[in-house]
Every structure is written in C-alpha cells, then in structure tokens.
C-alpha cells in the first residue's frame, strides 16, 4: 500500500524527516518497506530554461521546419531547429538545453543532444506542453508569459511538487490503516508517545447542504446481512473534465492514473478515508430505483473491462428498478453504467458490504480492486455517510455539480462498539514488564479507545468500530505494546536453553543425502505444493481424477495439489534460465498428493534436476555438458551412501522421459530418472535439455530400515562383461532391448545396462545408436569364450530379427 507523506501532512502537521517518520510507522506495526521520492513532473524540469526567440527563418531543406536563434541567458544565443507551426519572433518559450532528459507519459526518458537536422545545427529543443509533462497538448510549442525573465529555470516557473511515498506492507488485520487518514491516526498515537501532541485534522463536511431536491432514486436492499449499510445521493448538472492539478498529483504519487474529475474524486476519497465509492450515470438507471440484491445463477454481466462474466447467485449486485445489473457490489463496476464524458448527472454510492461475501465474489471472478481489497478486510461502517458527503462536496466544487437529493441511508441495525475489560495483571504478564498505569491510559486515549470504568485491577473499555481486529483483552495488550514500543521493553541478557537431541532416523537420513548433494554442487529448492490443473494432461502417468482440488483456490494456477514434483521443479529451472543462470543442479524433498475414491494419500519424494554444464566456467576445467550418465553416477553414489549396493536396473514406465531407466532393490522401485521430453519442456518454456530423477523416498526409507545384513561367500568365478553397439529405429525403446535380452538368456545374463545413446546427422534419418553392456556370470564355473560368444551371437540374432537392429 502506498502512502503519500504530503497527503499525511494534510491530516497531521508533522515536520519530521521522511526516514524518521518511516521508522516510527514501522515501530507501530505499519512496516515501511521503502521510501520513494515522487515528483509531480518527472525530472523536475532540470535543464529547462526560459528562452526568447530572437529570429525565426524557414529551413532551406525542409518545408515544415524553421531555424530559430534563442536567447537563454547565456553568453551567446543558441540555434535551434523547430518544427512547431506556432513558433515566432519575440516569444518566451521553454527550452530544453543540451544534456537535458525529457520523459514521455510512460516515464521513459530521452536525452537532448547537439546534432544536425536536415543539415542545420540544433543546440536544444523548444518544448510543447506534453513534452514537459505539463499536459497533453502537442499542437505547438508552449508560449510563456512575456514578463518571465530569460534564463529562469523551468522549476521556478511551474508549480512542481516533491513528495515522499511510503510503501507499507500492511497486514490483513489492520483494515483501519487502509487509508491516509487511518495511517495519520496511528502516527499521531506514536507521536504522543514521543511527547509530540498534534491535532488530527479531519476533512470538514459542515458545508453539506441540499438546496433543491430535483432527482431522487429510491433504495431497496434485499438482504441486510449481505449489505448492513447502504448510502446514496444524486448529483446533477456536473461537467466531466480533468481533475484539478492537486488531486491529480495526489493520485499520481500513489501510482494511480487520473481519469476524470468524477472518477478521480471517488478514488481520492477512497485513499483518503478508506471508504470505497462508486458513481453511476443517472441516465442509465431505469425505474427510478436502486435495488441491492442477488441475481440468478449464470446471469450474464459485462464489467468495466468489457469482459462478459457469469454471475453467481451469491454475488451481491447493484441493479436498477428493472433488475438490470449495474455493478458487482464492492468489486467492479459495469461497462454500461459507468461515467463517461457525456454524463451530466450521477447517483453516488457509499456502502458497507459483507466482507466474506465480497471476498468470495472477488476470487470467483479473479478480480482484485482497491475497493474489494478494503471491503474484504472490513471497513469502518460509521464512515460510510461521512465519506459520501465528503465526495459530494468535492464533486460540487470541482465538477460544478448540484446536490439533487438528500442522502438515502439504509442502516437498519446499528453496529455497536465492542466492550472489553483490561486486567492490569494480565497486561504486565503478557508484556513481561510493568508499564505505569497512566502511560497505559494515555496510550488507550491516543488510540481513541474510551475508558468507561476503572477499578484497582483494570479498565472497562469501549473499542471504536473501525478497529475490527481488537475484540479481546489480548488484542488490547498488543495495541498498548506496539504504541509503547517493543524496543522499550527490557529483556534479560541471560539466555537459558536446553540442548535438544533429534533421534528421528528419517531426518538423519535426509540430512546425510542433503549434505552429499550440496557437496556435489546442488542447491536445495522448495516449491509450492499447489499447482496448475493443466499439468495433469502432460503425462498419462498422472491421473486427472486423482487431483486433490482446493475448495476456495487463490487462483487457477494454484487450484490443485501436485501429483508430481516434476512440473514445479521445471518452473524453478525455467525461472533461473530466463535470468541467464543456465547451469543448474537442484534437489527438493517434498510430498505428492493423490485422491483415490474417498481415500487421500501422501507420498514423500526426493527429486533432482540437472541442466547445462557440470561445473562453473574455469580456466582449469573444460566445459562439459551434464548428460544422462552424469546423473546416473550421482544417483548411484547416493544409493551407495545409503548402503543400497545391490541395485537392479530396468526400463522406466514413466512417459515424461524421452530416455530413462529405473533402479530398484529386489521388487521395490527406488528411483526413476532420465531426459525430460521436449514436449514437456516446451510447455514450461525451456529450450535446453533437462535431466530429472524421482526418488520414492518412502520406499528408500523402508528398504534401509528393513534391510538385514547377510553374510555370503564371494563369487568364486568371475563375471564377464560384453558390449554391443546397435543401430535401431528411433521408435525402439531401451525397454524393448532389455526385455528381449532376458527372454533370450535367462540363466547366465545378470544385468543389461544402457551406457550411451547417439542421434545425429552421421546416422540415417529415423535411426539412433544404443551402446549396451551385458553382464554374464556362472556361479558354478568359469565361463569359456566359446560359451560367451554363443550367448552374444544369440542376443545379436534376436535383436536383428525382432528389432531390425544392425551391429555397428
């Protein structure tokens, strides 16, 4: 939330340095995350001076250009080539000298340089109104009053305001501080604690008066639970035009773009007092009536952004007398009922809508506006009518409007202030220090908390309605503490603690692997368990019906719990690659979530992501790209570190890999890894190869927990390893080679492993090369060469027959 310091000073005449004020606001719980200097005209017209046009002649090489000499108060006049049709001798004009930076309406600057235009030298620029940021006119140069002295800096000619804007990280409970007046109210309490007593100046509405009642709309509220209070007034004879400069400057300072005087005034009062307002074109309200009601499910409605939306039967709607929707209450206005340049009369609304209802509506339609931000958190219901009068008076003054009706005020059940009893003993206990009773009472008074009764043990208090977050004794104590100052609470310099011993075996194992991965150059990541539903369609191994969906999702991108850590990890990879960090090694411990009928299941995983070069660039190391076998070596070392040595490899069944294998222990699958498919990488926006490994961490913990130590004799007879390089069709998977090999030789073949894959322009189109190793062993005797050759020949023949393989 942005708060303008000069706007704050409208309510509280404090003359502290902005940094000091920011520190006090932070101490009060309104954390100032940054302070930005804002100028009503960007650059403050530095380098702009007043000049006088001495001569003006036609450019010899361009019909639309003129050559001028301009006196800017320097030793010699300067020559400027100008294309404005209204430039003439004797004019006083604003001149941007060489080196001056001018800014466009988007805030992007360009520097004035000495140069030649159609062969004639130009040493500056005579500026139009829009080029200086003073308006939108670009029909010609800006001609100044003749009595302004030549050489006068532009910053002295025009009214330029410099402001300081606080970026406040407002917590959701502090709805009372969602305005400049609310922040000023809190700042005043802090200043009183610093022995600075200032009056809090609130805008006056004493001049509010209706002379002629010429146009009135009856107001009918269908559900008082959804709309506890609704106020409205009609204003006629308005002229829609630009806002006065001071309102525009206030809005620009906090990042709002001025629209017109009516819209700007409603925005101004919103940020001034925290009360959202909405103006309807009165001519577009049929039936001479305002209905606050809900409509049928699926009703179509076009909002201000020209998007047609389907309404829910729970959305509060502002309708006309014929039940035509005009506005989604508290969230967004309608396209057909908004104020335009042709509007001459308006119905101005100020209301209090149910925070829960507004929150659900805003999320349902994926809309987040300044109004919904405040309604969702709960505004001050007692400010509703006051803010309406404030805005009406401003419209009357700056749009020429006439108040045409009394204020309609639907408020059937007044919300009473909260009553709380504060025990001194509980305050001392929670604060940890005894604060003087007079100090406590002064703090409560500065916060506008009334003391109704006082006993020896405590105080009976009335909490103002705008403090919706203060309803318990503990909340009162927190208020006292934040104003008194956390830094003023004494604490012991002695710290007592006990050493804890973590005997959790699972945590130990996790730390062992994390340490090893860190030593190998990996960085740990932590990604959100909520993810996009569309990722389910990228893999047949992920069942869309097993998605665990959120009942009230924050957004469509965070709608379901993940069934795989792959996609959230790839998002992290893409984020880094987009920021030129191309060589990556990530690991993450996390859970996946699945729904099977009425049963929910969580599984723990460890995932690895490897992409780019193995090592950082170094003069002593050559750049080597990470590949499948590099990842395989890392995975093997992790399993060996866990004491899992007897690993069985087999083809993977996961369809997220273009090439991949699986490691298991007995019949238990431990890890699947390989090269991620290009189609998946393209969906995430990744153009380089990514290697992925998915450890079933629950299975690994089960294996190392149940693994028993067995002692057996070492094999007496050696194993023999043979390799084949096969040229295969691209469609043939390692799984096909693996299964066919064990079908061919079941007794002596112990392992089949893929150790190289090649696809390139040196091979025929549609072909690839597999380098495969075969491990043979007879536990009763040494294998003879003739027996080994026979097995290998049989394997080769079956590969050629069944897979159309060719020996390379």
Short description:
The protein has 808 residues and is α+β, with helices and mostly antiparallel strands. It has 20 helices and 41 strands. It is globular and about 115 Å long.
Q: How would you describe this structure to a colleague?
A:
By secondary structure, the chain is of the alpha+beta class. It is globular. The two termini are 68 Å apart. It has 20 helices and 41 strands. It has a seven-stranded mixed beta sheet, sandwiched between helices. A five-stranded antiparallel beta sheet has the order 5-4-3-6-11, with no helix packed on it. The model has no long low-confidence stretch (mean pLDDT 90). Strand 3 and strand 4 (66-71) form a beta hairpin.
Sum up the overall morphology in one term: globular
Residues in β-strands, percent: 25-35%
In the sheet with the most strands, the strands line up as 28-32-33-37-36-35-34
Number of strands: 41
Average predicted local confidence, pLDDT: 90
The structural class is alpha+beta
What would you report as the Rg, rounded to the nearest angstrom?
37 Å
Which key phrases capture this entry?
five-stranded antiparallel beta sheet, 41 strands, 808 residues, seven-stranded mixed beta sheet, single chain, alpha+beta, 20 helices
Write the layout of secondary structure elements.
Blueprint: E1 2-4, H1 5-11, H2 18-27, E2 31-39, E3 48-58, E4 66-71, E5 78-82, E6 92-97, E7 101-103, E8 109-111, E9 115-117, E10 120-122, E11 124-126, H3 129-132, H4 154-157, E12 162-169, H5 180-193, E13 218-221, E14 229-236, H6 245-253, H7 261-273, E15 277-281, E16 289-293, E17 300-302, E18 308-310, E19 317-320, E20 325-328, E21 332-333, E22 346-352, H8 355-364, H9 370-377, H10 384-398, E23 402-403, E24 408-410, E25 418-423, H11 424-431, H12 437-446, E26 450-454, E27 458-463, H13 473-484, H14 505-519, E28 523-524, E29 530-531, E30 548-549, E31 560-561, H15 566-577, E32 584-596, E33 599-611, H16 628-641, E34 648-651, E35 657-665, E36 668-676, H17 678-684, E37 690-696, H18 697-706, E38 720-729, H19 734-744, E39 749-758, E40 767-776, H20 785-803, E41 806-807
Parallel strand pairs: 13-16, 28-32
Antiparallel strand pairs: 1-12, 2-12, 3-4, 3-6, 4-5, 6-11, 7-8, 9-10, 14-22, 14-23, 14-24, 15-22, 16-19, 17-18, 19-20, 20-21, 25-27, 26-27, 29-31, 30-31, 32-33, 33-37, 34-35, 35-36, 36-37, 38-40, 38-41, 39-40
Helix pairs in contact: 1-5, 6-7, 7-10, 8-9, 11-13, 12-13, 19-20
């Amino acid at each position: 939330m942005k708060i303008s310091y000069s706007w704050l000073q409208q309510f509280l005449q404090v003359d502290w340095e902005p940094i000091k004020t920011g520190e006090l606001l932070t101490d009060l719980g309104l954390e100032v995350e940054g302070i930005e200097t804002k100028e009503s005209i960007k650059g403050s017209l530095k380098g702009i001076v007043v000049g006088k046009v001495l001569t003006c002649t036609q450019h010899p090489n361009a019909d639309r250009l003129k050559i001028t000499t301009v006196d800017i108060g320097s030793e010699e006049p300067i020559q400027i080539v100008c294309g404005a049709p209204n430039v003439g001798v004797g004019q006083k004009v604003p001149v941007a000298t060489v080196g001056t930076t001018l800014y466009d309406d988007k805030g992007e600057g360009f520097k004035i340089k000495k140069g030649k235009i159609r062969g004639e030298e130009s040493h500056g620029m005579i500026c139009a109104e829009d080029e200086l940021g003073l308006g939108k006119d670009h029909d010609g140069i800006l001609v100044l009053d003749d009595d302004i002295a030549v050489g006068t800096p532009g910053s002295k000619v025009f009214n330029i305001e410099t402001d300081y804007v606080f970026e406040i990280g407002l917590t959701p409970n502090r709805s009372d501080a969602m305005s400049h007046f609310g922040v000023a109210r809190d700042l005043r309490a802090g200043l009183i604690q610093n022995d600075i007593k200032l009056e809090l100046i609130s805008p006056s509405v004493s001049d509010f008066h209706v002379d002629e009642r010429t146009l009135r709309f009856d107001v009918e509220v269908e559900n008082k639970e959804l709309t506890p209070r609704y106020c409205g007034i009609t204003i006629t004879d308005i002229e829609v035009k630009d806002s006065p400069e001071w309102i525009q400057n206030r809005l620009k300072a906090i990042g709002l773009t001025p629209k017109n005087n009516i819209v700007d005034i409603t925005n101004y009062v919103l940020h001034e007092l925290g009360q959202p307002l909405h103006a309807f074109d009165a001519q577009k309200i049929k039936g001479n009536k305002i209905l606050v009601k809900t409509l049928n499910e699926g009703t179509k409605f076009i909002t201000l952004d020209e998007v047609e939306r389907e309404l829910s039967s729970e959305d509060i709607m502002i309708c006309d007398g014929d039940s035509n929707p005009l506005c989604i209450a508290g969230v967004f206005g309608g396209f057909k009922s908004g104020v335009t340049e042709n509007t001459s009369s308006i119905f101005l609304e100020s209301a209090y809508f149910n925070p829960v209802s507004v929150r659900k509506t805003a999320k349902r339609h994926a809309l987040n506006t300044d109004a919904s931000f405040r309604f969702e958190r709960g505004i001050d219901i007692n400010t509703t009518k006051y803010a309406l009068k404030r805005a009406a008076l401003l419209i009357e003054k700056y749009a020429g409007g006439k108040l045409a009706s009394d204020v309609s005020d639907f408020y059937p059940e007044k919300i009473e202030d909260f009553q709380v009893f504060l025990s001194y003993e509980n305050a001392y206990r929670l604060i940890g220090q005894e604060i003087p009773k007079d100090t406590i009472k002064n703090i409560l008074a500065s916060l506008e908390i009334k003391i109704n009764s006082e006993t020896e043990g405590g105080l009976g208090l009335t909490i103002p309605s705008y403090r919706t977050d203060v309803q318990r004794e503990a909340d009162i104590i927190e208020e006292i503490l934040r104003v008194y100052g956390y830094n003023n609470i004494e604490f012991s310099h002695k710290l007592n603690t006990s050493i804890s011993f973590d005997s959790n075996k699972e945590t130990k194992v996790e730390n062992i692997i994390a340490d090893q991965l860190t030593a190998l150059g990996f960085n740990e990541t932590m990604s959100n368990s909520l993810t996009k539903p569309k990722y389910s369609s990228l893999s047949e191994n992920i069942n869309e019906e097993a998605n665990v969906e959120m009942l009230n999702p924050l957004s469509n991108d965070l709608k379901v719990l993940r069934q795989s850590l792959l996609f959230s990890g790839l998002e992290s990879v893409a984020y880094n690659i987009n920021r030129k960090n191309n060589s990556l090694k990530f690991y993450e411990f996390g859970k996946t979530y699945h729904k099977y009928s009425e049963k929910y299941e969580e599984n723990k995983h460890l995932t690895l992501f490897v992409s780019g070069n193995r090592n950082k660039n170094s003069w002593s190391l050559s750049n080597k790209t990470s590949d499948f076998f590099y990842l395989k070596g890392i995975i093997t070392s992790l399993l060996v570190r866990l004491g899992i040595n007897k690993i069985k490899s087999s083809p993977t069944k996961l369809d997220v890999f273009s090439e991949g294998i699986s490691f298991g222990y007995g019949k238990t699958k431990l890890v699947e890894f390989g090269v991620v498919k290009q189609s998946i990488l393209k969906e995430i926006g990744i153009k380089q190869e990514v290697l992925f490994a998915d450890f079933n961490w629950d299975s690994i913990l089960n294996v190392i927990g149940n693994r028993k130590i067995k002692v057996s004799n070492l094999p007496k007879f050696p194993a023999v390893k043979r390799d084949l390089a096969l040229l295969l069709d691209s469609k043939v998977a390692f799984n096909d080679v693996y299964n066919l090999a064990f079908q061919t030789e079941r007794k002596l073949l112990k392992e089949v492993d893929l150790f190289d894959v090649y696809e390139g322009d040196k091979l025929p189109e549609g072909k690839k090369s597999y380098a495969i190793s075969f491990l043979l062993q007879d536990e009763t005797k040494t294998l003879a060469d003739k027996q080994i050759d026979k097995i290998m020949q049989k394997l080769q023949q079956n590969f050629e027959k069944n897979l159309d393989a060719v020996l390379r």
